[in-house]
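re: that chain from earlier
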Amino acid sequence: MLYDLVIVGGGPAGIASAIYAARAGLKSIILEKEFCGGKINYTNEISNYPGFVSISGVDLSSKMFECVKSLDVEFKYGEVVDSNLGDAIKTLVLSDGSEFESQSVVVATGLKTRFLKCKGEDRLKGKGVSYCATCDGFFFKNKKVVVVGGGNTALEDALYLSGICKEVTILVRKNFLRGDKILSDAVEHNDKIYIMFETVIEEIIGEDKVEKVLIKSKGKTSEMVVDAIFIAIGQEPGNDAFREIESNELGYFVSNEDCLTNLDGVFVAGDCREKSLRQIVTAVSDGAIAANQSIKFLKKSKMKYASTKI
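^ sequence. v structure.
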């Protein structure tokens, strides 16, 4: 089946693209490897998205999904593992071997989790090593846990866990917090949260579950007894399946504010592209722009459209 537009990624950018594409009459589909809304599902509270004083990531994702379903946008779960985007008809291949063809593509893959890459991490994943506080925090009620990182995600995770766990210690590699002031202040005034600066984990120790961590703090090595480790050290682009799209040295797609790429009919949106600010609101904006660019491209094309409404 030939589509006017295939959207890779069902996060805020991809959903916005689908909404604008559907309203323009394009025959489109969203390909999402995990779940609608992407990583905002991991956010306990969102308080900087216009229209909501405060809303959980899960609730915002649900509302976004309602929008695309109301417009009868196709939604397919599966990870894109390969692509051919240089030809007039673009092809995307999923991990199950299925292929999708389209005359234009919006890549809105977001970011993937960055790992510590220390000894014991991989072996104890799911056994006390977690990358999602809102997903796994409940399992460590009244326990002693560690959060690794000094940015907004780490601070949000620590605040969330402080309402569940007995004690939360934040391990920060640098000598300062990188998060927003409002979050930093909240963390520093929370009696259940402790901060250790200039500290890194060298090894995660345990047989069938996390039992303790070997840390190096200000040059001194010691062990800390903990029940869980929540890793929040940032994210990175996972754009390997789209080798034809030009990327910078960090792996982000090269693009301007028009979401254009080096390939005709291929556009990028959201956190996967190089940009100065990565927020839900900027991802949504990118999605709308990318879809609009696709509409313009299809209208200029001399090919027969998949949709009769363009």
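The chain has a mean pLDDT of 94.
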